[in-house]
Amino acid sequence: MRKFLQTILYEVSFYVEIIISIILVVVLMTLTTRLVIDVTGIFSSSNTIEHYLQNFLNQAMSIAIGVELIKMLTKHSSSTIIEVLLFAMARQLVVAHGNPLDTLLSVISLTILLAARKYLLSNFDDHHSIIVRGSQKVKLANVLARVNLPSKKQELMRDFMVRYLQEEEKTVAIGASIYFKDVALRVDSMKGGVITRVEIIKSHH
User: Where would you find this protein in the cell (predicted)?
Assistant: First the structure.
């Protein structure tokens, strides 16, 4: 029962994140449109160039942070979290004019984040994975995951997995995996001995 509830809550939270991302996309598109319209008012604005530019950069950087936030919600990886923090720190440096100590601390923070992204994250940490149904055709899965799995004509993902697992003399079971260049496939779930879901894991370089 506990495992079932955990699975249900995980699935619900996933769709809630998708809904939030969609709402953010709509809001950001609206704000971007308004930002473009505001550009036309640069000649009629009574504000100084410095004030106008600072206000414009503030809005543009806020939109950029929103875009990165969408990436973080839809793609759970360490790199996307660091990118959101980088944009937030960059906005603080570019737009906000703090005292020298605040600026120094911001620069140090940026340096630490950049170093963490370069030296502490591996390809395994920065991977993209999607789960497709076992009844999904491999050709469609290739399009969805942007991979190039060598399949037979009209072959389904479950048949593809079984074929390669048998060729490698592996047991067809949950967790069983096969590997190609820059991509791996893992049996995510089974029902009645039939593969129902397959996870496609694509590493980023």
Answer: Cell membrane
